[in-house]
């Protein structure tokens, strides 16, 4: 029976894999339990790991460190690949205001943690662990732990302990903040929903279609190519042309001549509707189906970009209109419609809206691909190249004024930054970065599960004693770190920035990168405003959470 003893309490690789499997399995099963509609999800893996560690079911230290760090890298890299395409867009327009609120929460949380540590005498590394749990941010914990290990060559198990005891009440504190903000400002859900409906009717941020009657004398007699040359700063595509004299509808080409009272079907940015209509004449109430019914020889089909050789090419360089006689009216990327300008750089996974005959569209399909099964194959090359570059970037020592030790982005910060850059700009470097959402989530969940299991095992020894002696006070400190910054910025967001309440709940959840809180916020309204607010602030918040956790360890420990 020695093999059973070795499997349960030994130090072999088989024991390590068995232990990790058991911890993750039971952690995920417990994570499905909901109390008042709220679940802690995969965080239960940490608690099961602590329980195993408490009963001395540990593993070889080298294996533990490898699995923990590799899991962290997979997790943050998957996050970076997911948020990268929208990262820079979130720093524009309305996103600036929302990100100011979220970053304010991050900075106030770190400040609160440092003040509590100064008053109570709790060491900074422990406070960083408590703060990471209070703000439900696992990558921040991983980054801080890595920074401390690089600086001292040692581990501090109190970081994991602080995280574990503060996390549950951290989720509760986020939801309590949402409820209090609603109460303080006497929020009327009907009014907030109506405000969202009004905003939704403004299509200025996405591609839209209008029908225009040509009446401008300056335009009459000119070709579409000549008109577009007069307004190079405007992105629009003329899809179809109705000749007033012959009453025929044809696909618009660059050489199509526009005459008085002709009608055109135009794809453009919603915010340019009035300007483009004025350029040509006036907008007319002619629906899309009228164009389709009058021109039955044309069909509209959506074609998926699946050929890797198309990745990174500009739409205009393919000459699809010239070769096949069809129009590309818009490009859908990650649920957002873009005007199909010739300068648009295509990415694997884009969906092109093509108008033309059956034969011409078949020709476009041969060029673009339109074979969904190709996208089901994972593009691991870009992942592991990115991870390798991220580890190199994270290992570079950076000297900061007044900091005794060189600053490093570490195994969390380096891969996160590289993933954001590759997912956003990889197509320009001819890198295939597309992966299905399910593949990304699989990598992310495997990574976070490995990380939490290993952190739990490492923190298990002595956890009960810590909880008896100091743990309850740590829970209280964690709640303060959760509650005060959220309430301050929640009030600022509502009173100063006049943010819609449902959007604000998403920002509150996103500032703590907390899915359970987002699930609660989504249940308050039929609109996706909470999810949009969450997604807008998530990328920058994640970056700052990782960065500030590292800086706290380097500057104050």
Explain what this protein looks like in three dimensions.
The protein has 557 residues and is of the alpha+beta class. The chain has two domains: 2-196 and 435-556; 207-374, Alpha-Beta Plaits, CATH 3.30.70.1450. It has 22 helices and nine strands. It has helices at 2-9, 13-31, 44-54, 61-87, 94-120, 124-134, 138-152, 158-184, 189-200, 224-230, 273-280, 288-294, 320-324, 358-368, 372-375, 380-395, 410-425, 437-460, 463-496, 501-511, 515-522, 529-556, and strands at residues 207-214, 236-243, 248-251, 263-269, 281-284, 299-304, 327-333, 336-339, 351-356. The strands form two sheets. A five-stranded antiparallel beta sheet has the order 3-2-4-1-5. Strands 6-9-7-8 form a four-stranded antiparallel beta sheet, covered by helices on one side. Helix 4 runs parallel beside helix 17 (410-425). The two termini are 47 Å apart.
Brief sketch in words of this structure:
By secondary structure, this protein is α+β, with helices and mostly antiparallel strands. The protein has helices at 2-9, 13-31, 44-54, 61-87, 94-120, 124-134, 138-152, 158-184, 189-200, 224-230, 273-280, 288-294, 320-324, 358-368, 372-375, 380-395, 410-425, 437-460, 463-496, 501-511, 515-522, 529-556; strands at residues 207-214, 236-243, 248-251, 263-269, 281-284, 299-304, 327-333, 336-339, 351-356.
Radius of gyration over alpha carbons? 28 Å
- Gap from first CA to last CA: 47 Å
How many strands, what sense, and barrel or not for the largest sheet? 5 strands, antiparallel
Strand content: 5-15%
The count of helical stretches stands at: 22
* Strand segment count: 9
Into which percent range does the helicity of residues fall?
55-70%
The main sheet orders its strands as: 3-2-4-1-5
Envelope shape: elongated
Mean pLDDT: 82
The low-confidence runs, each spanning 5 or more residues with pLDDT under 50, are none
Total domain units: 2
- Coarse structural class: alpha+beta
């Amino acid at each position: 029976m020695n093999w059973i003893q070795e499997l349960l309490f030994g130090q072999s690789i088989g024991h390590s894999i068995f232990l990790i499997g058991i911890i993750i399995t039971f952690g995920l099963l417990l994570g499905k339990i909901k109390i008042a509609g709220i679940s802690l999800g995969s965080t239960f893996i940490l608690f099961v790991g602590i329980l195993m560690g408490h009963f001395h079911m540990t593993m070889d230290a080298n294996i533990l460190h490898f699995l923990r760090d590799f899991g962290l890298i997979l997790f943050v890299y998957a996050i970076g690949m997911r948020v990268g395409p929208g990262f820079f867009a979130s720093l524009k327009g309305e996103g600036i205001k929302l990100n100011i609120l979220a970053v304010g929460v991050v900075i106030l949380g770190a400040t609160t943690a440092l003040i509590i540590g100064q008053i109570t005498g709790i060491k900074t590394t422990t406070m960083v662990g408590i703060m990471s749990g209070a703000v439900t941010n696992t990558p921040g914990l991983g980054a801080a732990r890595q920074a401390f290990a690089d600086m001292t060559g040692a581990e501090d198990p109190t970081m994991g302990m602080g995280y574990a005891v503060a996390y549950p009440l951290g989720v509760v504190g986020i939801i309590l903040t949402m409820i209090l903000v609603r109460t303080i400002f006497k929020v009327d859900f009907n009014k907030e929903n109506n405000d969202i409906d009004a905003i939704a009717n403004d299509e200025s941020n996405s591609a839209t279609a209008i029908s225009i009657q040509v009446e401008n004398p300056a335009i009459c007699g000119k070709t579409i190519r000549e008109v577009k040359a007069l307004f190079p700063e405007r992105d629009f595509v003329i899809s179809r042309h109705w000749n007033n004299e012959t009453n025929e509808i044809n696909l618009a080409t660059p050489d199509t001549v526009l005459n008085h009272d002709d009608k055109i079907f135009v794809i453009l940015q919603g915010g340019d509707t009035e300007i483009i209509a004025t350029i040509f004449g006036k907008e007319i109430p002619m629906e899309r189906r009228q164009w389709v019914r009058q021109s039955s020889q044309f069909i509209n089909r959506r074609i998926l970009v699946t050929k890797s050789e198309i990745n990174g090419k500009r739409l205009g360089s393919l000459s699809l209109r010239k070769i096949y006689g069809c129009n590309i009216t818009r490009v859908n990327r990650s649920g957002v419609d873009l005007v199909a300008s010739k300068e648009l750089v295509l990415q694997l996974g884009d969906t092109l809206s093509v108008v033309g005959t059956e034969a011409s569209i078949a020709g476009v399909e041969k060029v673009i691909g339109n074979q969904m099964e190709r996208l089901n194959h994972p593009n691991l090359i870009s992942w592991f190249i990115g991870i390798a570059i991220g580890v190199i970037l994270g290992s570079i020592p950076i000297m900061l004024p007044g900091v005794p030790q060189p600053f490093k982005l570490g195994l969390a910060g380096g891969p996160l930054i590289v993933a954001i850059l590759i997912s956003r700009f990889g197509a320009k470097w001819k890198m295939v970065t597309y992966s299905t959402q399910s593949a990304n989530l699989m990598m992310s969940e495997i990574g976070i599960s490995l990380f939490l299991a290993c952190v739990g095992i490492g923190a298990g020894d002595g956890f009960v004693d810590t909880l008896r002696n100091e743990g309850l006070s740590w829970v209280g400190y964690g709640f303060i770190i959760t509650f005060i910054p959220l309430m301050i910025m929640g009030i600022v967001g509502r009173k100063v920035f006049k943010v819609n309440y449902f959007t604000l709940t998403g920002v509150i959840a996103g500032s703590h990168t907390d899915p359970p809180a987002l699930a609660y916020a989504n249940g308050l309204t039929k609109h996706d405003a909470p999810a949009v607010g969450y997604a807008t602030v998530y990328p920058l918040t994640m970056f700052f959470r990782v960065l500030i956790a590292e800086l706290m360890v380097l500057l104050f420990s």
